[in-house]
Amino acid sequence: MDKIIIRNLEVDTIIGIFEHERLNRQKVLINCEVALDLSRAGESDDFRDALNYSEIEQILYATAKNSQFLLVEKLASVMADKIMNLAESVQSVRITVDKPNAAKYAQSIAIEINRSRN
After folding, report:
1. What is the pLDDT tens value at each position of the chain, 118 positions in all?
2. Is the pTM of this model over 0.85?
3. What distance in Å separates the CA atoms of residue 51 and residue 48, rounded to the nearest whole number?
4. Domain carrying residue 9
5. 56-63: long-range contacts at Cβ-Cβ below 8 A with a sequence spacing of 24 or more?
6. CATH code for the domain of 84
7. Domain count of the chain?
């Protein structure tokens, strides 16, 4: 299956359960893989046969930027559902959200959400 991949989208957001997380924006890193058939666009070289990856990026960015969610799981799930609803051609979505400041000893804590039409 073909994929559109967005790597290391950095967004400052409100996410978390602790008071300081509710008051201060913190960085999250978002990675996204969208599986779909891109053969028609590859043959035609016509943007109308493709899924607009800028639209995917905007969904990820706006959803995270406007987040008031408590859990990273919820943020990733909402983003995945929005992308699945973009087009029937989207077969699956994998979203990983890293929260770099969540761990004391690790570089980051991440949540991965997978959604598919199967």
Report:
1. 999 999 999 999 999 999 999 999 999 999 999 999 999 999 999 999 999 999 999 999 999 999 999 999 999 999 999 999 999 999 999 999 999 988 899 999 999 999 999 7
2. yes
3. 8
4. 2-116
5. 56/4, 56/6, 56/32, 56/83, 56/86, 57/6, 57/9, 59/83, 59/86, 60/6, 60/9, 60/11, 60/30, 60/32, 60/95, 61/9, 61/11
6. 3.30.1130.10
7. 1
